[in-house]
Amino acid sequence: MNESIPEFITPEEIEAIPEAKEIYEKCMAQCWEAYSKLQGLGLKNEMARYVLPNACKTKICVSGNFREWRNFLKLRLSPRAQHEIRNLAFEVLNRLYDIAPSCFEDLKNGTSIQMT
To answer: pLDDT-based confidence at 3, cuts 50/70/90?
Structure first.
């Protein structure tokens, strides 16, 4: 994959502080510049990508059976889960519930989620 269009996620906490946002955006720009320069030196994209930050937007495709999805959801719907993975888990739950409501109803209602 060639990250030719610089896209990254800005956390709300950084977005809320103008000075932090400025620092963050400068850092992201430097990372993208370094990535382009490494590509220009002939490095393969997968090697140049090492300089890109965790904040890079990416697209992934995953699959799993219902048992695996239920395990993922039980772990990642917890209030203790990191907010980005928790938001993803809610989206996954909504989509799986639309496909197979009887298999995910207890999770949708919150009766099978460990809240500790």
So the answer is: low
